[in-house]
Amino acid sequence: MNDDFISRLRAAPRPEFAEALYRRISASERPTPVLGRSFASRRLAWSLAVLGLACLVTLAAFPQARAAVGEAVRRIGAISVWETAEHPYLGGEVRTIPEKLVPLAEVESLLDGRVTLPTWVPEGFILKDKAQLYRDPLDAEQWSVGLIYEHKPSRKTISLFIRHLNQDFVPTEIVGPGSVEEVTIKGQPAALVRGAWNPTTQEWRSTGLVHLHWAAGKMVYQLVTGEGAVSTADLVRMAESME
Amino acid sequence: MTTQPDALKKCIGAGAIEVDWEAVYREHLPRVYNFFLYRFGDGPLAEDLTSATFEKAWRARHRYRRDLAAFSRWLFTIARRVATDYFREQRQTLSLEEVPHLSDGQVPEESLQHQADLARLQALLSHLSAREQELVALKYGGGLTNRAIAQLTGLSESNVGTILYRVVQKLRQQWEGEP
Lengths: 243, 179
What we know:
Shape of chain B: globular
Helix content of chain A: 25-40%
Helix content of chain B: 55-70%
Largest sheet of chain B: 2 strands, antiparallel
Distance between the termini of chain B: 31 Å
Radius of gyration of chain B: 17 Å
Shape of chain A: globular
Largest sheet of chain A: 9 strands, antiparallel
Number of helices of chain B: 7
Number of helices of chain A: 6
Largest interface: A-B, 27 and 40 residues
Structural class of chain B: mainly alpha
Oligomer: heterodimer
Strand order of the largest sheet of chain B: 1-2
Strand content of chain B: 5-15%
Strand content of chain A: 25-35%
Number of strands of chain A: 12
């Protein structure tokens, strides 16, 4: 059946339409974020990581921004935490960037020589074969990867975000008030945070997620899991098994 | 083009499924958009109805059951309802004169000849019956197989094939006979 002439009517949706619709849908209602239970939770964690990277870049790029937050920032080891009730994101509307899933091998080659992935993880958690990758479109040396360790029977996950910053400064994590506890990783101070920013409303939720932040050189690390999914000691042990 | 739910990821409980929404969106947006484009011949309207379809699908995503239907079938069931609702609201069918054409600025890289071809094909499609228009839209806009169309419409697969064959023959005669 020669039907080629009918197929000529096909057209690609306008990119701006496709992008706007995706943004609108992504920003609509989400289930309560309990990491490891839903796609939306992983998105939230990823958004959190990207948002964090954006904040770090912003703080790095604008000295006046660093000065403005100077009094509110607390140093913990190689990172700083800025506790605030209102998310001070300087870029206006928060845009959820769709995660780009890439084969694990691509991320491993990116990390090669810089980071050794955890040699210990809580029992039953297995590294997924796809990883999230975000590259700063303006600077190839600034990137963030997200690795997911999944416990299939319980559907709980632990996400490991590794960011490489092409800036020489102390990374600052912006968190809700009273959410930070200082712990140590291989004897070095690290920040254990309970809660997460809602990337849509920019409000801090004090429950749902637990994340562990630490940094070394230009590498910034974050382990994120659902509240109660694994113990704090296990998160620290997992972090300590990295090199 | 596959009609299998390649983008689908995880099973949740008995049959309910979690959807990789980004992959679903990337794969199905052009198909749903073209379904409406073929159905109504109007780019802006196709965008509006595509938006309505994906917003409904997003809100109902937890009710999708892989054991009951392929994802594309589920999504096009929603798209057909959106089209039906639109017709109901309009309470009229578009006449030939009312069929909008792609605007010149919509696809700037297209040649004038190509745009003229599109307008002419849209005019020919507008003469088809509502059922024929829908089958053409599902087949050539949505990229569905005859089997998937049969499941959606309640027709037999052979009926779908026969109707589409006749429609294409008729359209081709008109296409080649009316330069």
